[in-house]
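Forwarding these from the shared drive since the link keeps breaking.
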Amino acid sequence: MIKQLYLPFYLGLGGPIGTGNQYMPWIHIDDLTSLIVYAIENPKVEGVLNGVAPVPCTNKEFSLAFGKALHRPAFIPIPSIVFDILLNKERAIMVTEGQKVIPKNTLSSGFKYKYQNIEVACKSLVA
C-alpha cells in the first residue's frame, strides 16, 4: 500500500479520505514477517493471529504521520466519492468506512511488536 501512496504524498497531494475519522488497520512489514515466523515457530500459538498493529489509528492520523515522515503537508481531504468512482462501491467501503481491529490473540500469545506507533513506522519506511 505504501508504494501506491508514496508519490501523491511526496508531491504534497496526500491527505485523509473523507473525514479521516475511519479506523485503518495497519502493520509494519517487519512486524508482519516477524509475526508469520513467530506463528510458525511457536507451537503454543493457537487460533487466528490478526496481522495488525496493536495501536489502531484513524486514516487522518496515518495521513499526518506519513506526510510528516516525508516532510510534506498531508491535510487536503480526498472526497469519499473519488473512491466510489475509482473502485466499485463494495471495495470503496473498505477505504471510506474502515474497521477498528485489535489483535487480542496476537498480543495474548506473547508476540512483541517492533513498531506499535504509526509515526515511528512511517519514518522507518521512508528513511
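-- next protein --
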Amino acid sequence: MPEITLYHADGACSFVAHALLLQLGIPFRAVAMRFAADGGGLESADGSISTAAYRAISPAGYVPVLVVDGEVVTEQLAVANMIAAQANHHNNSNNDNNNDDDDDEASGFLGRDTLSRVRVVEWMAWLSGTVHAQGYGPLLRPMRFVEAGRDDVYPAIRAKGLATVEASHARIEARLTGRQHAVGDQPTVVDLFLYLLWGWGGRLAHIEDMGARYPAWEGVVRRAEALRGVREAAAREGLGLFFE
C-alpha cells in the first residue's frame, strides 16, 4: 500500500478529502495545518512545518494537499480522484477475493456511470471555482484581491463575496430540489462538499435559518452526516455535527 499523507486544516475545504479517506477506509497520515501568526500562509499546527517548508511541498500553500509515495496532488477534484484510485488499490491488495463492493463504493463517490461522472466534475468545478473561490474567498480574505494597503475597499469586496455565496445557495437549493443526493441515487464527493458548505453558510457567512431557507439542501446534508467518514472527520477536526 502506498504511503499517503493528507495536509488539511480543521473545518477547511480539505474536510472533503479527510472525510473521503475515512469513508473508504484508506490508511493515511494526517498533518493538521493552521494559519501562521504573521498571516503569511499555512504552517503545521504542531509547529514542525513552517510556511516556507509547506510551500516547498505545495507552492500554492493551500489545503488539501495529498502526497502519495512522494507525488503531490492538489485541488479538490484531483485529490478525490487520487483517493478513489488508492482505495481500489488498497482493496485489491488486501482482499484475495477482490471485494467488488468496496471497489464500487470508491468509484461510486466519483459517479457510477458516464453522465454521473460528468455531473460530479461539473458540480466540483463550480463549488470550488465559484462558491469557494469567488464567494468565500473575497468574503473571508478580501486582502487577496487588492494590493497591500487598500483595506478601504475590503467592505465592498466582502459584500460582493457574500452576494455570490447567497446566489450560489439559491442555485444549490434549486438543483437539489426533489433529489436525495446531488448526483444519482448514491452519495458522491459532491455531497461531502455540500455538507461542508452548509456549515460555512451558518458559521462563516452568518446566514440564519439555513434549514428553513434551503430544505432540499438540508435533506442532502442530513444524509451525508450519516456517513461514517463525515462523522469521523468531524470528530477528528473538532467540528460539531449539525443534527445531533
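The domain at 4-107 is CATH 3.40.30.10 (Glutaredoxin). Residues 114-140 form the longest helix (27 residues).

- D.
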